[in-house]
Amino acid sequence: MMYIDPGTGSMLFTVLVGVLGAGVYSARTFFMKLRQGITGGKAKVSEDKVPFAIFSDNKRYWSIFEPVCREFDKRGIDVLYLTASPDDKALECGLEHVKAEYIGEGNKMYTKLNFLNASILLSTTPGLEVYQWKRSKGVDYYVHIPHAASEICLYRMFGIDYYDAVLLSGEYQAEDVRLMEKMRNLPAKELHKIGIPYMDEMAKRLEVEGPAPEHPRTVLLAPSWGPSAIFKVYGTKIIDELLKTGYHVIVRPHPQTFISEKDMIEKIMKQYPDSENLEWNRDTDNFDVLRRSDILISDFSGVIFDFTLVYDKPVIYTDPNFDLSPYDAWWLKKPLWTTETLPRIGCKLTDESMGDLKSLIDECLEDPKYAAGRAKAKADTWEHFSKGAERTVDYLVDKYAQLSREGEQK
After folding, report:
1. What is the DSSP annotation of 346-382?
2. What is the distance between the alpha carbons of residues 231 and 407, in angstroms, rounded to a whole number?
3. Are the CB atoms for 41 and 27 separated by under 8 Å?
4. In terms of CB atoms within 10 Å, which end of the chain has fewer, N or C?
5. What span, in angstroms and rounded, lies between the C-alpha atoms of 283 and 300?
């Protein structure tokens, strides 16, 4: 049988989808014009077009979209929620005006998205128009919402280039988007600062449930994945050093680790099984593990800002000067907001300080200067506190009204 390598297969799929998409779009347009001719032009332009759709490529992003979906539901506005996870909580969310649908994975997922018929699509997934996910001719407007309170330029190259709008939480993010657009000669996207809906929800939940009950001093190790992540840089040495502190240690790897670095993480988990002083955490909802941890050790994971801004606790971070070449930030040739902010909110972990990790942990927890740094970081990257979901839906509803007016004028 003929062998087709994955890269060629992806290219062929893209070509096939493009051809089919053009055909479907042409046929749809023809029948709409025919129907308008029969009815004297009084029929709706597209009766099956949904006003608002949301796409989530993984169940873990339900926390990003749930506050927005609840706001839609509160206003009695219907929204179609498309997920690539068969066990996404959205599928059983119980919201009257949210229709959630599992659309499969891989080519099945891309086909659904590439033929989608919706006025506005909201997504946290980067890479639109870069690989197999193409803009559907049936979608009028693509809106990106970030899934972390940090740089918008820390996506893989060209991550948000082909969105029409990006929802942001800080002015420094807007400045970076405009710089990338200028350098790549891209049309200006619509930028709208809405805050951070999922962090608003975490803050509300923390206010209701309060701090964790009294517990032994607890350190959360939450590495990201990739060549610059903690386990690739330090190996298991960091677990050994943490266990020497006598503190309770929780290890929570990034979910992508179990996909992209499966052999490595399984080997580490086997070498360091759950014990009285060590636990592994893979909860979809990270609220409880963040609440009961006193300090976080991480690298470039977005959880750093969830932890320090919502829970008002310090962090220990690894050297942030990782290889930027695969990311949009490489184009900017300027210091990252993250690298400038990290020293204000915690201590840097180095090879030298690794040998006395207990002292480093104690310093971060006891020095008051880090509390002031957290306040500054919060002001920079969390505008419109507690209003994120409301401002998101306000923007989407206003944009839909604008698109509808423009459609009527054509």
Report:
1. EEEE-HHHHTTHHHHHHHHHH-THHHHHHHHHHHHH-
2. 52
3. no
4. N
5. 20
92-147 residue pLDDT tens: 999 999 999 999 999 999 999 999 999 999 999 999 999 899 999 999 999 999 98
H or E stretch including 269?
Answer: helix 262-271
Structural domains in the chain?
48-196+386-409 (3.40.50.11720), 202-381 (3.40.50.2000)
Q: Could you report the per-residue pLDDT of 139-186, keeping only the tens digit for each?
A: 999 999 998 888 899 898 999 999 999 999 999 999 999 999 999 999
Q: At what angle do helices 197-209 and 62-74 cross, to 10 degrees?
A: 90
Q: Is it the case that residue 195 has pLDDT exceeding 80?
A: yes
Contact 146, 409 (CB under 8 A): no
H/E segment holding residue 206: helix 197-209
Mean pLDDT calculated for residue range 280-287:
91
Distances, alpha carbon 237 to alpha carbons 232, 268, 296, in Å: 11, 11, 17
In which region does residue 388 sit, left (phi positive, over 0), alpha (psi from -120 to 50) or beta (all else)? alpha
The model carries a pTM of 0.82
Give every CB contact of residue 211 below 8 A, 6+ residues apart in sequence.
291
Residue of 311, 302, 391 whose CA lies nearest to 342 = 302
How many CB atoms neighbour CB 279 within 10 A?
A: 15
